[in-house]
């Protein structure tokens, strides 16, 4: 759906505990069509259909008064508790920041509020940024392109684009968590391979020279401190984005043995010496380890070899290859280690702007799929690209779409794509610190769901109906229950107080 900021309807407000729309009041019998009435239902409901007939629409339903006899019941078990949730969001790349800063200040403030505000927006709560450039930066660079770590300095991309946008986001939601990942080390730290160790002056490929492991660890600390000086706390880092991908426009190969050495013997000691509480997540790449036999079970090999448990929290995954069942395999092997899902993309190759094709699959495979396989966070790729899939550059993705796309002609009309919806449906009702709880009882191949208990004691559930028919679903938390007619081909979020 394309909406114009200047019309005053960019996105529907998502304050599920504060207000409901006129349509919601009509559904519950409230209001007279003139002014929205106070919410009349017990459960706040957010609905999006793949056809956009309902587009982040708000509804309410009431608790049932009679005993629940419905055969289509999802029963929650709050006593059975799984992972604590950190949040949901998208990558705020250089390209995203560029597009946001082409908007008028008023329109940008509206978009950021309605995306990040936990009070009257969708409540996105976790974002990912790059350390130096990514393949969606305005140029290829690091923060130390002159040889010698003493030359470290933030660049114009951070100072003029990324930091101003992050400050605006944090003004809306100070609790947003930020993860950072490098796409490449400085080129003067690169060698062609670890045998010949010849200088490798390319942004693409190469390996980190072990002689510079200590300098590179110092680079991380300097970068984290530079952002802290701007009021931006970095909650977590990964040592390398896609460490098995040699072909990205900015990239660095880092096999598991290299990552073990760099992290355990250099990065962790530097973070600890600097008294930084930034977490480290290993790997940050595909479920299938890019089919490299010697890199299978990459994080498990590092855990098995022994890694600092205080700073190294767990591992991060993308879904550009393999199956999400790998998450369960990793969790079962090391249940005390965390998992986060850090990147997925839509684009021309997967009909990414066709919501009828993408919404249901992305909700099942990415959002609920990752959460139900122990991920504490779900982060998608670019928050915002323009309608020409950019700004982009040679060697990077020229066919990617954003979670939202903004029209380059005027930077006012916005199209929400599947990734915006799947993140919003989770973030709107599942707050940082929520615990995933058991939910079972309804065995229907077309219905996928997860349930949560928020820090304030409220309960939440997010449900996908991928069937072409509607379903009458009852949710029972052991104390109360409610029934909702779930539309065909839809994603629905529920939130209710105890």
- In terms of DSSP E residues, the strand content is 25-35%
The separation of the N and C termini measures 35 Å
User: What is the β-strand count?
Assistant: 25
* Widest beta sheet: strand line-up: 3-2-25-22-21-20-4-23-24
Judged by helices, strands and strand pairing, the structural class is alpha/beta
Evaluate the radius of gyration: 23 Å
**Helix fraction?**
10-25%
Mean pLDDT: 92
Number of continuous helical runs:
10
Spans of at least 5 consecutive residues whose pLDDT stays below 50 are 6-38
* Main β-sheet description: 9 strands, mixed
Shape: globular
Task: Explain what the structure shows.
This protein is α/β, with parallel strands linked by helices and 498 residues long. The protein contains 10 helices and 25 strands. It has a 9-stranded mixed sheet. It has an 8-stranded parallel sheet with strand order 5-15-13-12-11-10-7-6, with helices on both faces. A 4-stranded mixed sheet has the order 1-19-18-16. Strand 18 and strand 19 form a beta hairpin. Helix 6 (256-273) crosses helix 7 (298-305) and helix 9 (355-371) runs parallel beside helix 10 (418-427). The longest helix has 18 residues, at 256-273. The radius of gyration is 23 Å and the shape is globular. The two termini are 35 Å apart. Residues 6-38 have low confidence and may be disordered.
């Amino acid at each position: 759906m394309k909406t114009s900021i200047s019309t005053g309807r960019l996105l529907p407000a998502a304050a599920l505990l504060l207000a409901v729309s006129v349509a919601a009041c009509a559904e519950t019998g409230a209001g007279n069509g003139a002014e929205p009435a106070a919410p009349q239902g017990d459960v706040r409901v957010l609905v999006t259909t793949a056809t956009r007939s309902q587009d982040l629409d708000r509804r309410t339903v009431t608790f049932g008064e009679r005993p629940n006899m419905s055969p289509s019941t999802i029963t929650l078990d709050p006593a059975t508790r799984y992972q604590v949730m950190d949040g949901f969001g998208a990558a705020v790349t250089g390209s995203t920041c560029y597009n946001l800063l082409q908007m008028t200040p008023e329109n940008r403030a509206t978009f950021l509020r309605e995306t990040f505000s936990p009070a009257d927006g969708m409540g996105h709560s976790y974002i990912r940024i790059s350390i130096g450039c990514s393949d969606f930066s305005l140029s290829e660079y690091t923060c130390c392109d002159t040889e010698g770590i003493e030359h470290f300095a933030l660049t114009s991309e951070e100072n003029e684009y990324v930091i101003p946008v992050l400050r605006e986001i944090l003004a809306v939601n100070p609790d947003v968590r930020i993860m950072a990942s490098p796409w490449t080390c400085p080129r003067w730290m690169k060698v062609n391979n670890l045998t010949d160790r010849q200088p490798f002056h390319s942004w693409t490929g190469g390996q980190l020279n072990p002689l510079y492991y200590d300098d590179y660890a110092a680079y991380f600390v300097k970068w984290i401190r530079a952002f802290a000086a701007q009021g931006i706390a970095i909650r977590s880092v990964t040592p390398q984005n896609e460490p098995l991908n040699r072909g990205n426009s900015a990239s660095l190969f880092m096999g598991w043995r290299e990552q073990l050495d760099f992290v355990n013997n250099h990065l962790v000691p530097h973070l600890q010496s600097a008294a930084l509480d930034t977490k480290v997540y290993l790997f940050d790449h595909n479920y299938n380890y890019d089919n490299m036999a010697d890199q299978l079970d990459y994080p498990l090999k590092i855990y098995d070899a022994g890694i600092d448990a205080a700073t190294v929290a767990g591992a991060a995954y993308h879904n550009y290859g393999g199956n999400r069942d790998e998450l369960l395999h990793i969790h079962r092997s090391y249940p005390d280690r965390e998992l986060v899902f850090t990147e997925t993309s839509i684009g021309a190759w997967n009909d990414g702007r066709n919501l009828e094709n993408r919404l249901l699959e992305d909700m099942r495979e990415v959002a609920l799929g990752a959460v139900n396989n122990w991920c504490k966070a779900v982060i998608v790729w670019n928050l915002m690209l323009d309608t020409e899939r950019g700004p982009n550059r040679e060697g990077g993705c020229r066919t990617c779409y954003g979670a939202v796309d903004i029209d380059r002609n005027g930077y006012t009309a916005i199209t929400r794509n599947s990734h915006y919806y799947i993140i919003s449906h989770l973030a709107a009702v599942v707050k940082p610190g929520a615990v995933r709880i058991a939910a079972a009882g309804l065995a229907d191949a077309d219905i996928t769901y997860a349930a949560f208990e928020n820090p304030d004691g409220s309960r939440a559930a997010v449900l996908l109906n991928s069937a072409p028919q509607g379903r009458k679903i009852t949710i029972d938390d052991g104390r109360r229950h409610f029934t909702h007619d779930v539309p065909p081909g839809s994603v629905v979020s529920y939130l209710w107080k105890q």
